[in-house]
Design a protein that fits this description.
Elements: H1 2-29, H2 37-53, H3 57-80, H4 88-100, H5 110-114, E1 118-120, H6 125-129, H7 133-145, H8 153-170, H9 177-188, H10 191-196, H11 203-223, H12 228-244, H13 246-265, H14 271-287, H15 289-299, H16 328-336, H17 387-400, H18 406-424, H19 440-451, H20 458-502, E2 509-510, H21 521-524, H22 532-544, H23 546-554, H24 563-566
Helix pairs in contact: 1-2, 1-7, 1-8, 1-12, 2-3, 3-8, 4-7, 8-9, 8-11, 9-19, 11-12, 11-13, 11-18, 12-13, 12-14, 13-18, 14-15, 17-19, 17-20, 18-19, 19-20
Length: 578
């Protein structure tokens, strides 16, 4: 029964997100702005199918209760933890707010639309030229709740959905229930996802889509049956990959290519694969007129700014210290076997402009506060402190893999090919958030190692269990770092917003342009729009309150009057402070 519940609920949650995006995209193309019906219609469709999936009335009510609990829990978690990421609070949040306020990306110039609402002009280029799957979903949650931080609700909804779906698919391979639960949990607690789940960053959604797609393919090939639900998940996860980020298209190409080769080797029909590719191309054309067609029209290439004559180099400035002179393989290996840090070449903050230090696997070098897992996009060693050791264990496990089933052996190498080729296809694989699917390598290796009970002998079992232990420990450390920091960060920012209200500072939407810390950007942007007395009061309050000052320094936060820029570049109309 649990397996059936998990499967049903994972599909329902996944379906709500996918259908919301599809309906919203079609509506936006028809000049209909974001409205509450875009998310209400998928919800009613989901309830209809939940009723259809249920065997009895009590069965339906139990699943409905769990569904409501997941949605409410996801919603309140998204409100409690505020986005603390750089990009998440800039063009991602800008897109969400403007979509909620009526922006039609296909037809409207964002800068012109923003002038009606934004007190200070901002750089709208990135918001216009990137795919907007996550932003569209976020805008729908924002529209129906009135709270900007609720835009992160889908992060948690998909997290629960991935866990339940992983459980139902792993059941096809493994008989030991406790191992199924553990592996399903490990799939979810990818450090990239942990670091981004409280933010509006989108790499975790690339990972979720990748997991849904590869698990569905494994389910179909293992069970040798294919349902309409399986086809829906394939199309839905493919749409996610093509509509979240440009790298998603590369990963989608790798998956379809490997699946096609597998079907040819197995002498199976590829008719279905061609059908999926055709449907995907058609839906992508409809849902992603902006940015792919608009980019081609405005910049000469659908994949601008990554490709084309007018391409923009947005990565070189992000290189950790010493990475510029290395090739992609060297960067990947150094990042894998280095101390986890957020090193950036020539960064004005000395604590970030530090050399990248290699370390022995399974060791932790004591980090400074700025170099531990408190940021959303750790550049070096982004999969966690024990990741290099986990990879070594995984490689060791390969040498002990034995298969009773030829089918499992083929599926293992098929899965391995997809993961490795997708990583190799990205020249920036050194940055964990650009290749979150690499996290699946040790997990699927353990899953296949345990799938053949007869050959799951002591040595292989021991290596598998040690690997699972360190994967779990690795993620727990990252979770502890993230929750601890984000809890303090969100709490103190609420205090600051209360202080803003007490000082009667005028509210509005404030977008900040990117600049180096050394430019004292806060003073150049938001503060000129505040009265001089408000600035003075804020600075005096900060300098007078020694306890508050000590707390902020201990958290490595900026002074209270700089908080507007770095820690909350958006002051929402009144909605956040209801």
């Amino acid at each position: 029964m649990i397996n059936r519940y998990f499967y049903n609920l994972s599909i329902i949650l996944f379906g709500i997100i996918i259908l919301t995006f599809l309906i919203s995209s079609i509506g936006l193309a028809l000049h209909i702005p974001i409205n509450i019906f875009y998310i209400m219609i998928p919800t009613f469709i989901a309830l209809f199918y939940l009723k259809k999936f249920s065997q009895t009335k009590d069965d339906f009510l139990r699943q409905l209760l769990v569904l409501l609990l997941v949605l409410l829990f996801s919603y309140y978690l998204s409100l409690f933890f505020w986005d603390n990421s750089w990009d998440g609070k800039s063009y991602h949040m800008a897109s969400i707010i403007m979509l909620k306020k009526g922006w039609l990306p296909i037809y409207d110039n964002l800068s012109e639309v923003a002038q009606k609402f934004v007190i200070y002009p901002f750089n709208a280029s990135f918001a216009e030229i990137y795919p907007k799957f996550c932003e569209t979903i976020g805008a729908n949650f924002y529209k129906i709740t009135g709270y900007i931080e609720s835009s992160k609700t889908a992060n948690f909804v998909l997290l629960f959905s991935v866990f339940m779906y992983s459980y139902s698919v792993f059941k096809e391979f493994i008989t030991k229930n406790i191992l199924i639960i553990i592996l399903s949990l490990l799939v979810c607690i990818n450090p990239v996802c942990i670091c981004e789940i409280f933010t509006n960053l989108v790499d975790l959604h690339i990972y979720y889509a990748f997991v849904f797609l590869i698990l569905t393919i494994l389910k179909i090939e293992k069970s040798k049956t294919k349902t309409k639900v399986d086809e829906f998940v394939i199309i839905g996860s493919s749409i996610m990959l093509s509509s979240i980020k440009l790298t998603g298209i590369a990963y989608l190409t790798v998956i379809y290519f490997c699946w096609g080769i597998y079907l040819i080797i197995e002498k199976k029909e590829i008719k279905s694969l061609v059908k999926y590719a055709f449907i995907l191309a058609l839906l992508t054309l409809i849902t992603c007129i902006n940015p792919y067609i608009t980019n081609f029209k405005n910049y000469g290439h659908p994949f601008h700014p990554v490709m084309g004559r007018n391409k923009i180099d947005i990565i070189t400035m992000q290189y950790p210290r010493g990475f510029k002179d290395k090739n992609s393989i060297e960067r990947f290996l150094i990042s894998t076997f280095a101390e986890s840090s957020n090193s950036i070449e020539n960064h004005p903050i000395r604590a970030l402009n530090q050399p990248v230090n290699l370390k022995i696997p399974f060791t932790i070098i004591k980090n400074s506060p700025l170099r531990s897992f408190k940021v959303a996009d750790m550049r070096v060693g982004g999969f966690g402190y024990y990741w290099s050791g986990i990879l070594c264990l995984t490689i060791l496990l390969f040498f002990f893999l034995r298969f009773d089933s030829t089918e499992n052996k083929k599926l293992f190498f098929f899965t391995l090919s997809i993961i490795l080729l997708s990583v190799i296809s990205n020249p920036h694989a050194w940055w964990a958030r650009f290749v979150p699917q690499l996290w699946l390598l040790p997990i699927f290796s353990v899953m296949f190692a345990a799938s053949d009970i007869k050959s799951f002998e002591k040595t292989r079992k021991f290596i598998s269990y040690v690997c699972v232990f360190f994967i779990f420990l690795n993620s727990i450390i990252v979770i502890q770092n993230q929750i601890s920091f984000n809890y303090k960060y969100s709490s103190y920012n609420r205090q600051l917003f209360d202080m803003v209200e007490k000082q009667s500072i005028p509210k509005g939407i404030y977008f900040m342009r990117n600049a180096d810390y050394k430019d004292k950007l806060a003073d150049e942007t938001i503060l000129p729009h505040l009265e001089e007395r408000h600035i003075k009061l804020l600075k005096e309050e900060y300098n007078r309150d020694k306890i508050l000052k000590e707390k902020f320094l201990s958290l490595q936060l900026l002074p209270i009057y700089d908080f507007y820029y770095f820690y909350k570049p958006v002051l929402i109309d009144n909605s956040l402070n209801k």
